[in-house]
Amino acid sequence: MQPPLHRLNEFVPASPLAADLFTSWLSHRKVFRRHQNIRREGDPVSSVFFLVKGWVTSSVMMRDGRRQIVKVHLPGDMLGFPSLALEHAGEGLEALTGVELCSIPLAEIGRLFEELPSVAAALFLSTQKERIALMQELTWIGSTHALGRVAGFLLDLHERLDAAGLVEDGGFDFPLTQAHLGELLGLTGIHVNRTLKRLDATGCIERTRRRLRLIDLNGLRGLAPNHAPRYAGIEAWDRLGRPGAGAARPALRERAL
Amino acid sequence: MQPPLHRLNEFVPASPLAADLFTSWLSHRKVFRRHQNIRREGDPVSSVFFLVKGWVTSSVMMRDGRRQIVKVHLPGDMLGFPSLALEHAGEGLEALTGVELCSIPLAEIGRLFEELPSVAAALFLSTQKERIALMQELTWIGSTHALGRVAGFLLDLHERLDAAGLVEDGGFDFPLTQAHLGELLGLTGIHVNRTLKRLDATGCIERTRRRLRLIDLNGLRGLAPNHAPRYAGIEAWDRLGRPGAGAARPALRERAL
DNA sequence: CGTGGCTTTGAATCATATCAACTGACGTGG
DNA sequence: CCACGTCAGTTGATATGATTCAAAGCCACG
């Protein structure tokens, strides 16, 4: 299977050095089963991850035992970066399906800043984008009804799955339970159920076994509180002044003995 | 007034080059009045900001005209980074008090990656920390009562103000209206009022004019859903392999003619 | 001394949570 | 091949927290 590199090349033009680096990351992969913990909240932070295949939740626990899912990760996502500045992970990572990922040691990230500033800058931009996504999610949860939250999440998910090439005829595999959706959107699983039924009844979506189809995208958009912002691509990198573009600096491979 | 540089030196040991850079940023400042827009959502993104003095809200608008405040910024914070990857700003910035800040052109950030990788890495870590803060906020809002949300926010605020040296005897200036708190915590201003009164009645807090005092921190912690995670400092940078630590690279000033 | 912003209060209503029970699909072991 | 247990989804009745609307009070400022 071709790993979903589209996200890694999002902000920075593909360069041979970067490509070498990525393939070296992608060479040793780990596999996780459904429901397996990839990293528990509180574990020492020793690496970040690149998700090659499958879905992963990133969640925060509360004292009373409940948890808030803060992000549903899809293939191509980088995982674990928020905890980079923490001694112990602030977010748990759990496999929602069978998962294949690459573990990237922290020192590797340091080398990136040292030797491939353009890639480091791209990574930086990409995590800022995640910050916007979090802000967006906060907005859904903070100030809309259940209907808007569910609609908003489904639209966002659809868009991301589409970008990863995982949508067929408006439909996609959907491994989240209603309880998961509840933990993600700040609702009870039960209320999620009623809301999904409502969406179903209005003909916006179609649910079968473990698959979901968005039929009426515009209908959903009418229910959702706000649309996703437009992301820049290479332009953003341009505006930063193209870090690393022309600089003569030691090549990664020359030092990597 | 001494600008609050503590945040800039959080993850990286002070170096003469970095100090020069920071003082060059800090040399031209802008001033904003209370309630003035620093940047509107949708404005083209041309710079980021360093907040020297005053409070600033960062907020996202919704179609129905309501807005969600996603962060209350205090002196020493970097503003506007989430929109770095967007053509048009995804978050509005508004002065909550009189404000003094420095505007940093995007190209300056690019230069950072190019020429001072250690500072770039520190900036990266610092924005990851912000991501954790957002996740934390999401957790409050997604899965707790009004009481927990308010208590959690006040504790977090107190901690940050304390780090900035703005707390005196447990008390601090508090320019947020109850409506602001509502927009921040996903509640009605009215409900915030009732909640504050409740906290007041139990003796956890004390409100006077535009000032707030947290009297019973442990009591508040009992109400809040979760405590803030422990942040690493220089250690985090160590774990990354100290980018830029020993590298001989062109000094910033030599090129800055 | 009046005006406008912010806070406080009450009553009615709505959305969501909670509790409890039932259903159907699936996988497992006898 | 069937009986069983588990897990996800479904449904109803009731409780509660938060919103909405309306109005009064307070204070600061011009």
Automatic annotation (TrEMBL), chains A, B:
GO terms for biological process: regulation of DNA-templated transcription. It comes from the Bacteria. Keywords: DNA-binding, Transcription, Transcription regulation. GO terms for molecular function: DNA binding. The keyword Transcription applies. It holds the Pfam family HTH_Crp_2. Residues 144-218 form the HTH crp-type domain. This is Crp/Fnr family transcriptional regulator. It comes from Sphingomonas crocodyli.
